[in-house]
Amino acid sequence: MSQFHRLVLLVSLFSPIVAFAEDDVGAEVAQTSEINIPKTDQAIKVDGKLDEAFWQDATAVDFRYETQPGQNIKPGVRTTAYVIENGESLYVAIKAYDPNPEKIQASYKKRDEIYGEDIVGFKVDTFNDERKAYNFFVSPLGIQSDSIEDDVLKREDSSWDGIWSSAGQITDFGYVVEIEVPFKVLRFPNSKGAKTWGIDFVRFYPRDVNHRFAYSPNDRDLSCTLCQIGKAKGLNDIVSGNNIELTPYVAANKSEFRAPPAQTDWQGDGVDYDTGMDFRWGVTDNSVLNATVNPDFSQVETDEVQLDVNNRFSLFYSEKRPFFLDGAEYFSTRYNLLHTRNIADPDYGVKYTGKNDAHSYGVLVASDRTTSFIIPGAQSSSLYTLQDDNMQDVESDVAVARYSLDVGDNSQLGFLATNRSAGDYENTVLSIDGSQKLYDAGTLRYQIMHSDSKNTEDMQQRFGLAPKTTGRGFELNYSHRDKHWNWYLTHADFDDDFRTDLGFLAIVGNTKDVGGVGYRWYGDEGDFFYEYKVGGEYKERHLTSGQKYEEQKEVHFTVDGRLRSYFMVGAGTSDEYFADQWFYRDYQWFEGSLRPVGQLSVGFNVLSEDAIDFRHARLGKALRYGVYSNWQFNKHWYIGADINKTDFDIGSEALFDATIFNLETNYHFDDKSYLRLIVRYKDVEYNTELYSNPEQVSEDTRVSRQLLYTYKWNPRTAFYFGVSDNGFENDTVNEFERTGKSIFTKFSYAFQL
């Protein structure tokens, strides 16, 4: 055989793959809002090469629109997705073309932190109810990001982590990603035959602005998003399989502590070993049973420092533990009546969540070794921990139940009950909530709540509570949002004794009326700024006695533009009744951010205000300002830092000056392993002459540091090794003193059966 004939034969053998890679020949292209998902009996090797033969039979989906900042215009670059399934997994491949591949922004990052770089993916509404959707996105290097989108509450929860596979490759024409999502990761109707899911394919193309390209158009005159995405048909007889997942962990920690100047010797009990397990079982295609024994995540995730000086209300910290995150959206209401971070140290927990047709439900029970909750008020709140006569933490039982019903188009009615009890203490909350779509751009939302509480003698003495208290609260909200206009009206009313000990609600004992209006318009093509917004808000609060104690008015102006820039300026007045007197406050703020070059983003915020010194009930002046920067130095190394300062003056003298600094830097060796350094710093200088407390220190500095190595095979199979320490300096010591140090390791492995 001649060399020419050998060449012809070679080309003919590989022509399907070559044609697919260059011209997408052979794949059926979807031209409507309905996509047929074909079936294959082949498996996939997720490597980003698209060399499996079945891709020739996949349905091709072109990204037809730019929806941001352009409004349903033709995209500036081409993107095509390919979709097919094999009964066990959904396969998606996406080819993202780029005329300048050298400008593609991609780096090794932690999961869920790729937004702002080039990413592609899809969202899928598996129940086709236009209320919730799974989002799956991938960077050109295969780094994943996933979330659950709630179109009723207008929230997106990126803390959800599914176990799925992805890979990406940068090519000479752009980049390619390959995705496999096992059906056992998803929840969908437990029915035989063909199914219809909502689906959309999305690409973010960050250059001078961050363009959003999609398969489905987005009408800004509609208040819903998922009601506008396309429909995927097919998926015949797919099942989630056994879907049993066991994730045991083992951990070892050696911690030592001391309390200078009284205690200068290090104290500790040696190495502390710990173990626990998370269990997840997909009982049916649309319901999941979770259980956990002794969950622990405290040594791995760290909270950013927040300023707690001159702050009357409790600070909020988000949940990070996998057991509580899985299915958390089933318990969501407009008010945060279940903040699982309040379940601080559980012995065990069991949770069952699911959806049948229009009915969603969830049940959670747990036993918590620590019982801490917020005692709320109209003008302040306190964090309380239940303890026995020996000052030991008291264990409590936790129970939660949630039911919601889908009503009509994009409307919902729900019920939630929570209970926490221990001995002569108990708190029960009952709630009814709903969302009613009135017209395309208008929605009515409401929530009615009732609480019953039994209070211990210590709670009665410390907070002036009766042995038994009951309270009620409700909120009614109407909102309108279209292409240009948005407005809203809210009325909320809470009794003095309403309390949600499993939730996060710091302010009660008041009524609140809020009204706001905004208008947006758009720049012309080629303008530096492409979107402008102006708005205003009026808010008024009254105590349950009828006494008005707050009246606030503000206006603001916002622009979005090139260099991915954002700027906002605003001003307002706030009249506040506190400690039997009125304080009249003015405030102004200015904030913004932009990306001047490549992977460097910078931002700032400035707030100048008349501020109340709540400890001494007097008016002062506060200047709060800060800057932050996020820099992806190269494909492997990231550094992010923010510094915020507060200068609080009484007359011509400083009351306190505070500085907060947070630093995080990561070096990613590849897509699975990285080394992370975190530094948290807080320093407050006090003018003791202006404080009534004779023991007030003149300066207080707090520092904590953590160095952590992580290797993650997937969200729940991981190895950690780290060291951390913390310390302080104030008037009681002569120099900076370390007060704690630890070395720790943890290994968890997800067995999928």
From TrEMBL:
Keyword Hydrolase: yes
Any one GO MF annotation of this record: carbohydrate binding
Occurrences of domain DUF5916 (ranges): 245-345
Lineage: superkingdom: Bacteria
Segments forming domain Carbohydrate-binding: 46-202
InterPro entries, per database record: Carb-bd_dom_fam9, DUF5916
Organism expressing this protein natively: Kangiella spongicola
Residues of the signal peptide: 1-21
Gene Ontology terms: biological process: carbohydrate catabolic process
Keyword annotations from UniProtKB, A to Z: Hydrolase, Signal
Name the record gives this protein: Hydrolase
